[in-house]
């Protein structure tokens, strides 16, 4: 620390000690400014999270199973329970994690996902479905929801998600 900067620090400290009222007011104003800024950041963060959940409509309940299912029984169940706002059955394709590998040429590192606790699934694509989730407008009569799948096998898996 140079002599000039230490002199400036001493002058500033002397001014703060000499004007206690001004110093207290300055501290209170800066504290209020920081608190208001923090409150604005939190409000924007919570608002963006709410907006994200409104747009994505994540399921409140997700059930996954393998094998055949009765669509009529699912429709009757959803109709009999008014607390179910939307539902969707999505057929999934499971991939063996060991079959998915990566290689980084810049470092020579490589590996696979065989040690992953979660196997990889993706929706079975049809002509009408080209994304990983089905948009609500595409299946309004089926009371849509969105579901994701984690499968322990590489055979086709059926996932049904209930949105409450």
Note the main attributes of this structure:
164 residues, alpha+beta, 2 domains, four-stranded antiparallel sheet, two-stranded antiparallel ribbon, 3 helices, 21% strand, elongated, disordered C terminus
Question: Can you walk through the features of this model?
Answer:
- The protein is 38% helix and 21% strand.
- The model is unreliable at 127-164 (pLDDT under 50).
- The strands form two sheets. The protein has a four-stranded antiparallel β-sheet with strand order 1-6-2-5, with no helix packed on it. A two-stranded antiparallel ribbon has the order 3-4.
- It has two domains: 3-56; 61-163, no CATH class.
- The protein has helices spanning 3-18, 20-56, 71-80; strands spanning 61-65, 86-95, 101-104, 109-112, 120-123, 157-163.
- The chain contains three helices and six strands.
- The radius of gyration is 29 Å and the shape is elongated.
Topology summary:
Elements: H1 3-18, H2 20-56, E1 61-65, H3 71-80, E2 86-95, E3 101-104, E4 109-112, E5 120-123, E6 157-163
Antiparallel strand pairs: 1-6, 2-5, 2-6, 3-4
Structural class of the helix and strand makeup?
alpha+beta
Provide the domain count.
2
Global morphology: elongated
Uncertain segments: 127-164
Rg result:
29 Å
Helix percent reads: 25-40%
| Largest sheet descriptor | 4 strands, antiparallel
How many beta-strand elements?
6
Order of helices and strands: HHEHEEEEE
């Amino acid at each position: 620390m140079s002599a000039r900067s230490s002199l400036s620090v001493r002058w500033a400290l002397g001014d703060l000690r000499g004007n206690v009222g001004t110093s207290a007011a300055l501290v209170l104003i800066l504290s209020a400014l920081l608190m208001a800024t923090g409150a604005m950041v939190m409000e924007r963060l919570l608002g963006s999270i709410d907006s994200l959940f409104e747009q994505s409509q994540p399921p409140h309940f997700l059930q996954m199973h393998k094998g055949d299912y009765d669509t009529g029984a699912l429709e009757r169940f959803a109709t009999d329970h008014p607390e179910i706002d939307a539902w969707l059955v999505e057929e999934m394709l499971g991939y063996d994690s060991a079959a998915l590998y990566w290689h980084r040429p810049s470092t020579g590192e490589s590996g696979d996902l065989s040690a992953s606790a979660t196997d990889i699934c993706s929706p079975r694509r049809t002509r009408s479905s080209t994304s990983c989730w089905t948009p609500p407008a595409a299946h309004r009569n089926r009371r849509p929801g969105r579901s994701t799948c984690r499968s322990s096998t590489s055979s086709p898996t059926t996932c049904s998600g209930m949105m409450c």
